[in-house]
Amino acid sequence: MGRKRLQESADGRPTVHTVAARAGVSIASASRVLNGVGGSPETVRKVREAAAEVGYVPNAIARSLQSQRTGLIALAVEDIGNPVYVEMMRAIEEVVAASGRQLLVHATGGQIANETALLRRLAHRYVDGMIVSPIRVTDDHLAALVDSPVPVVVIGQLGADAPVDNVRTDSRTGVCLAVDHLVAAGRRRIGFVNGPLDTVPGAARDAGFRAALAAHGIEVDERLVEVGDFQYAAGRAATERLLARARPDALVCANDLIAVGALHALLAAGHRVPSDVALVGMDDTELARMMFPQLSSVSLGSAERGRRAAELLLQRIADPTLPPRREQVPPSLAVRASSAAVPDVSPLFVPAPAAPPTPEVTA
Amino acid sequence: MGRKRLQESADGRPTVHTVAARAGVSIASASRVLNGVGGSPETVRKVREAAAEVGYVPNAIARSLQSQRTGLIALAVEDIGNPVYVEMMRAIEEVVAASGRQLLVHATGGQIANETALLRRLAHRYVDGMIVSPIRVTDDHLAALVDSPVPVVVIGQLGADAPVDNVRTDSRTGVCLAVDHLVAAGRRRIGFVNGPLDTVPGAARDAGFRAALAAHGIEVDERLVEVGDFQYAAGRAATERLLARARPDALVCANDLIAVGALHALLAAGHRVPSDVALVGMDDTELARMMFPQLSSVSLGSAERGRRAAELLLQRIADPTLPPRREQVPPSLAVRASSAAVPDVSPLFVPAPAAPPTPEVTA
DNA sequence: TTGTACGCGTTATCAT
DNA sequence: ATGATAACGCGTACAA
Predict the structure, then answer these.
(1) Where would I find the HTH lacI-type domain in this sequence (chains A, B) (predicted)?
(2) A2-58: CATH topology
């Protein structure tokens, strides 16, 4: 039989009705004042006062139901522990915040097998739009993306015909940059520590590695190729396996986490970096600059991709009729100590207290 | 004059009305079927069919307005780049997901000066509860926390009288563990690289450091104490400043990011770790195990704190009348190569390919 | 300027 | 089992 709606809300908290009643005005007036539109000075004062007295807090859910927007943007990534996502997220946050919205990050943490379910669930209108960066794209995935009830932008490679806004890079070419650099530095026994081949980036980087070697007329030695996961421990383990059966003079790693694992494995096995083995990572994250020696790394423009994705999303939210767009961010190589062209002195073995400052780090 | 509500929703998407009309039943029946309660086999079939045909997706906002819950939990941290929050988040996620809810992470990124505003905004009912881990607690902060419209659990030190659920550790004692360990290993010129003193953890760790030295009868040499930020670059810079004016034989760092910066600074300056300078970090994150040599670190039980905080939050959501609770997680020390008690051989200088495996890393 | 009344999309209640 | 209808809390035409 429903109580009279002139009092508090179900959970005992004040609503517009509470404020209106206390101020002695209608809920319409109260609402107007609380939203800063209209109201005579006297009304404004009374409503403000009443609101403060009862500690009124607007119910965002109800507001959203009315306005059809939540002001929330979601970002879904697989592994929040990967610094590349941190950089992406910072860039996205900047754009999103500038538009007066809020960014929410959902980390599947690699734990949730069914990312599709998450996608559907999160997209049930709790957010005005979302950015996803999947590393595996199944048909289910794609279907969920395409008929998402809210605007979606995908960061990463996607089928050419997928009608979804998409920001990509060319990690294939990225690997080539690394190989070219190493070959130019005189390396020939170049190894590759990759992530799973059934992932989109894993496959692309594998192809890039083989194409690059072929371009230089170098035959691929399968003993120099190892596959693990896109993570530190797996990268380290993979490198240990590789070192147990081969003697590379350079190592390309499919991301920086793997590269850090490789560095650890190399040093632990007594190899000097870069004099014995040159090392190049990928993603060019903060992690690469945190290592000693600092890691060369192929930048895939993660921040730029994040920024662009956020902009595409905001545009689509503003105008849902836009045709699907596709943007591409070119890779670039940052050369640092781990693959210095003149590896006559390994930084690790400089004994003097006055060693030359490591490049690209400003204190 | 409002259009008849028997068709689509405002943005052209199907609603319960659409489904009901198409199935030739009432919205009540449609709703029941869609929620899996009641309905004759025939009705169920018709509704399911109609829903599939029009691609019905329930509007979570409307559902929440009705049910008074969103099924979302928020976690607000300052710096998502700090691995300690990653571990905390993983632990929280596990508990939250097990309760059938979803975790949303909001990273202020250290950019938003007014975290209080965020707190209020995010708490306007978009989430069923939230966990915050502030490093600075102002009066405003505290006020916002106390009269938050949704349940809040704070991870971190808080005034003893604050009526807010709270999970803390004792980083003061944590620093003591590190100092005790270093003194036992024969170190005497122990330095300290801290974060800002106007933060809660910064102040606590400073106090802990001074208390620990005093307990061992060692006078504090202010030249061995340096303050920066809780981040890598700042930690490295602070260590460089410290090394420019003093010669420590050990360094305690206020977190692992700082410790990594310190390691980089030490190695770049030609110091061996641990033989010349022993190094101990804090938080015992994955980062500590990624370094070479691996970093000793004081665990503040970040995962455990996260887990407990999530449990407290779920309990409070279930029963808001619970009195404020306070839990404490004790610190512990993980000793690794960077402060090995027998520093006769620096791992950095082991030349043999068959070096002993670094402890605590399983490939 | 102010108040009345309706709609946002859903679930729950109460008759039938 | 089913259908009409009242909430949930808010914003806003529209009329006064």
Answers:
(1) 14-67
(2) 434 Repressor (Amino-terminal Domain) (1.10.260)
A142 confidence band (pLDDT: 50, 70, 90): confident
Lowest mean pLDDT among A232-236, A346-350, B150-154, B329-333: A346-350
Hey, which residues 237-296 in chain B have their CB within 8 Å of chain A? 237, 240, 260-261, 263-264, 267-271, 286, 290-292
What does the alpha-carbon distance between residue A142 and residue A146 come to, in Å, rounded to a whole number? 6
Decide if pLDDT at B153 tops 90. yes
**Alpha carbon of A148: minimum distance to chain B alpha carbons (Å):** 10
Tell the residue number behind the tokens 């069919």, with chain if given.
Answer: B49
What are the sequence ranges of the domains in chain A? 2-58, 69-169+303-330, 171-300
- B 302-321 residues with CB < 8 A to A: none
Partners of B102 in the β-ladder:
B72
**Tally of CB atoms within 10 A around B328:** 12
Domain pair A69-169+303-330 / A171-300, same fold: yes
**Of A232, A352, A357, Cβ closest to residue B290:** A232
B54 CA, D1 C1': Å apart: 25
Q: Which nucleotide is nearest to B32 (CA to C1')?
A: C11
Tens digit of each residue's pLDDT (9 = 90 or more) over B39-73 = 899 999 999 999 999 989 899 999 999 999 999 99
* Residue A184 in contact with partner chain B when CB distance is under 8 A: no
Facing B83 at nearest CB: one of A81, A147, A361: A81
Read off φ and ψ for residue B154, nearest 5 degrees: -105, 130
Residues of A in contact with B269 (CB under 8 A): 353-355
Nearest C-alpha of chain A: how many angstroms from B70?
9
Protein residue closest to C13, using CA and C1': A1
Pick the CATH number of A171-300 from 3.40.50.2300, 3.40.190.10, 3.10.290.10, 3.40.50.150: 3.40.50.2300
Q: Check if A134 contacts B (Cβ < 8 Å).
A: no
Among A96-105, A120-129, A164-173, A270-279, the minimum mean pLDDT is found in: A120-129
> What pLDDT digit, counting tens, does each position of A342-353 carry?
543 444 433 333
Residues 323-362, chain B: which have Cβ within 8 Å of A?
Answer: 347-355, 357-358, 361-362
**A239 Cβ partners below 8 Å, 6+ apart?**
A193, A226, A251, A261, A262, A265, A266
CB contact under 8 A, A353 and B260: no
Strand partners for A72: A102
Q: Where are the beta strands (DSSP E) in A97-224?
A: 102-107, 129-132, 152-155, 165-169, 190-194
Instruction: Decide if pLDDT at B77 tops 60.
Output: yes
Please give the order of strands across the beta sheet that includes A296-299: A225-227, A190-194, A250-253, A278-282, A296-299, A332-334
With CB atoms and an 8 Å threshold, state whether A270 touches B352. yes
Q: What is the DSSP letter of A296?
A: E
Q: How far is the C-alpha of A177 from the C-alpha of B120, rounded, in Å?
A: 48
pLDDT of residue B226: 98
Look up the CATH architecture of domain A69-169+303-330. 3-Layer(aba) Sandwich (3.40)
